[in-house]
Amino acid sequence: MDSLPDLAAVEAMDEADPLRVFRSRFALPAGVIYLDGNSLGAASHEVFAEVRQAAMEEWGNGLIRSWNSAGWFHLPLELGDRVGRLIGAAEGQTVVTDSTSINIYKTLHAALAMRPGRNVIVAEGDSFPTDIYMAEGVLSTRPGITLRLEGRDASTIEELIDDSVAVVLVNHVNYKSGELRDMAALTKRIQAAGALVIWDLCHSAGALPVDLDGADADFAVGCTYKYLNGGPGAPAFIYAAKRHHASIVQPLSGWWGHARPFAFEQSFDGDAGIKRFLCGTQPILSLRALKGALSIWDEVDMEALRRKSIALTDLFIRLVETKCGQYGVELETTRDSEKRGSQVSFIHSNAYEVMQALIERGVIGDFRAPSTLRFGFTPLYVSYHDVWRAVTVLEDILSSGSWKDARFAVRGAVT
């Protein structure tokens, strides 16, 4: 193994970083090392400009005229195509709308309708819970449909797939461990069994290159408030391969998904394309914030982003294990960078208290029950020096035992 880099070497890495120019585009608080962009991305200055324009000029002065004059009505499709470029989707296959949870519900129903006679949904037992909860919600409306979970009903998803499976809901990057799945290989395996796949991209969109079309994926969902920096509660997205558009039937048949929404007809006639996944009136101010956030991505080289992500996470793992390994931290994320998203998780028996101590010192990561310290690395605004400083603070907290202060044991809401 190469020798551990010193501070001078880390600073040289920042000097050579082709993405360093993006850091100044974000409104980062002074003195804060932000390693929680996998929960909520930082705001860019472009976001503030878009929201001011939309609220003060378009809403304030344009009023209802802005649905047309400012292009509000077309934002779900316009932004869908911009997200699509980041997830390997050709135009007309992605729409920005609703939340990830609602979009999971819609796509699961759509997939089940496309596979009549099949009665099984497959998902991951260690998925982010909303995926499982929404699958259970679908089951409550579809008598005879059952749910199989990886880790409960079999060790791997592959073992659960047979000719009774209609759809597999799977995360590209595991929210807790950061493990990255092979999208192309698993998609091929699922489709070979006659099933459809829905990829959850919440922890990969904006974190690494994604190629939905290249993998021949069926559906995908994801959020825009993590690595895409769209803001708290920013609208999510749905991808549906064009070959499926004529077959899509989803239960939330709102007026925005109608083929002729302003004809005000009594019966629903779904749009022929990706618009069929729309429901009701869209949150324009949130969409405009996302528009500002996505403007930066037109300039980003996704391969350079991935290289920096790997370098940041590799450096963090090496520094933590070398400087903090003696204090009870254990790596939970894979060491194989090709199988890792843009986050690193460590286990510690007092992870909650340690994380609260870190946050008080200005190093913001997050805690996941029961014992995970989770750190997200957004290459557009996280520097190698940030990594060095974060580990220095973590080492001090662990070596001094300052995390044992009683105030860190008081548990509040953890997002």
UniProtKB/TrEMBL annotation:
N6-(pyridoxal phosphate)lysine sites (modified residues): 226
Top-rank EC class of the record's enzyme: hydrolase
GO terms for biological process, alphabetical: anthranilate metabolic process; L-kynurenine catabolic process; L-tryptophan catabolic process to kynurenine; NAD+ biosynthetic process; quinolinate biosynthetic process
Annotated catalysed reactions: 3-hydroxy-L-kynurenine + H2O = 3-hydroxyanthranilate + L-alanine + H(+); L-kynurenine + H2O = anthranilate + L-alanine + H(+)
Pfam family, one: KYNU_C
Gene3D superfamilies: Aspartate Aminotransferase, domain 1, Type I PLP-dependent aspartate aminotransferase-like (Major domain)
GO CC terms, sorted: cytoplasm
GO MF annotation list: kynureninase activity; pyridoxal phosphate binding
EC number: 3.7.1.3
Pathway recorded for this protein: Amino-acid degradation; L-kynurenine degradation; L-alanine and anthranilate from L-kynurenine: step 1/1; Cofactor biosynthesis; NAD(+) biosynthesis; quinolinate from L-kynurenine: step 2/3
Family assignment from sequence similarity: Belongs to the kynureninase family.
Role according to the record: Catalyzes the cleavage of L-kynurenine (L-Kyn) and L-3-hydroxykynurenine (L-3OHKyn) into anthranilic acid (AA) and 3-hydroxyanthranilic acid (3-OHAA), respectively.
Protein's UniProt name: Kynureninase
